[in-house]
Amino acid sequence: MIARKYKLIEKINEGSFGSIFKAENIRTKEMVAIKFENKSEQIKSLKNEARIYQYLGKLNGFPQLKTFGTTGDVNYLVIDLLGNSLIDIIKYNSLSLDSVLVLGIQIIQRIQSLHNNCLLHRDIKPSNFVFGNKDYTNKLYLIDLGFAKRYDYNGKHIEEKNITHIVGTLNFVSINVHNYIEPSRRDDIESCIYVILTMLLGDLEWFKETDINKMVLLKENIINDDKIPIFIKNMLSYIRSIEFDATPDYDYIISLMNISEL
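and the corresponding structure tokens:
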């Protein structure tokens, strides 16, 4: 029993930093998701994630925080139980262009909402976009905010600088992050574009590449690939051209996915 009211039912996912269980509130019968993180792990992200969910409150497209706490040798985070992730859909279904565009618009809207609250996600990938349950099965939610970070403090943007290690998942990080440049809003957007492209084409050319230099080269040259739709090329050309502290033109990016204009 977690927090004296949540009964664990089954494990639904496990990653390098912990596991996620489906659970039931024994008082209300509400189903929730509980993330666990071992206290002994060097990287502890749940406390940061809990603070961010609390800060975002009831922001549209993000799960609600129920509680955060500690029991035994683990930290735990309780949030809304959601449905399948984009990675589940991509694995077993081929998505039509129309579906990709509809979902792609939601992806950009979610990251825009996060950015509007002065936060970067810094680990955008298909598994972090999850469908809702019940009446919200066509709605995407953005999750896993453990690596999220403020980019603006009292109106002052963080400075561009070099970082010592890559933040995020290699297949989806931007070229700037590959080059050890501090992530900013443009880099979240570039990662979103790779997610959208993955929905459309499946595994991308660099997914099985183990040589990081070759991976970067493939990402750089994707704009010249005939298989890549023009709207993707236009999005990438735009987002790669803006400055570190620039506010992305989210409306323009979304307009490139407007079905009626393709």
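(Above: one complete record from the training split.) The chain has two domains: 6-80, 86-261.
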